[in-house]
């Protein structure tokens, strides 16, 4: 087993998570790339990282499912070693809709997928990192969204509210574990070029909205990855319970 720093990136096979996995691997971390169903994308990324001399494993786990989360963390314990960083990134949204057309099934599935999952992964990370449990500390970075501030009217208030919950989780947990060697922060990306907008039914969403972004463009996953990496690094050692907005000024 190596003495490398170890990071788990949920939803690490595509989009922001994949860019984050590549950056952490380049910086010398052993990376757990978690994915839910797109094994092809996760395995392709793992091959690229290994070809560049990095260390990584892929772990299929639905992070909204408690048993899967427990299995993922124990796989990392066994195969990579002591966890240093958790990046809670896995998330999803549904087709753009007004609230009066949302079913309970839709709302519940967004909340379980985007909120319960972050709580479960934080729980497993804290059990391993906290000095209260014999750990040596660590860092958690949650990927929230600018939607937590905008509310995403006419598109996905359910998704926006799930991200509001992540802001509150970040604040509460950061204070709960601050004296136990763990820092907890979050990034709040704005419009980033990934597959997520197509999942909402509008692949060209950023094109439609880019004129209202002060920087006049969408962001790239690699730009979000840099902020996540900074929050995970010692360079942000006095930061906890904070939100870093990455929205081109929006
Ligand atoms: P993406 O390209 O659609 O990727 C989403 C990733 O999450 C995929 O790897 C997917 O796994 C994984 N995932 C979803 N549900 C999961 C679950 N239950 N268990 C495990 N993995 C799961 O999206 P993205 O844009 O990179 O989004 C990453 C994060 O950034 C999300 O939390 C999102 O809300 C947030 N965000 C994105 C934007 C944006 O404009 N793109 C803006 C603000 C915030 P599979 O590959 O197996 O499907």
Give the arrangement of secondary structure elements.
Elements lengths: L5 E4 L5 H12 L3 E6 L3 H13 L3 E6 L5 H14 L3 E6 L15 H26 L8 E6 L3 H4 L6 H21 L4 E8 L6 H4 L5 H5 L11 H12 L10 E4 L4
Parallel strand pairs: 1-2, 1-4, 2-3, 4-5, 5-6, 6-7
Helix pairs in contact: 1-9, 3-4, 4-6
Number of domains as seen in the coordinates? 1
How is the main sheet built? 7 strands, parallel
Indicate the low-confidence ranges by residue numbers: none
Percent range for β-strand residues: 15-25%
Write down the overall geometry. Answer: globular
What is the CATH level 1 assignment?
Alpha Beta
Order of helices and strands: EHEHEHEHEHHEHHHE
How much helicity do the residues have? 40-55%
Hetero groups in this structure are: NADP nicotinamide-adenine-dinucleotide phosphate
Q: Helix segment count?
A: 9
- Structural class label: alpha/beta
Summarize model confidence as the mean pLDDT.
97
Family: Belongs to the short-chain dehydrogenases/reductases (SDR) family.
Function: Catalyzes the NADPH-dependent reduction of beta-ketoacyl-ACP substrates to beta-hydroxyacyl-ACP products, the first reductive step in the elongation cycle of fatty acid biosynthesis.
Catalytic activity: a (3R)-hydroxyacyl-[ACP] + NADP(+) = a 3-oxoacyl-[ACP] + NADPH + H(+)
GO molecular function: 3-oxoacyl-[acyl-carrier-protein] reductase (NADPH) activity
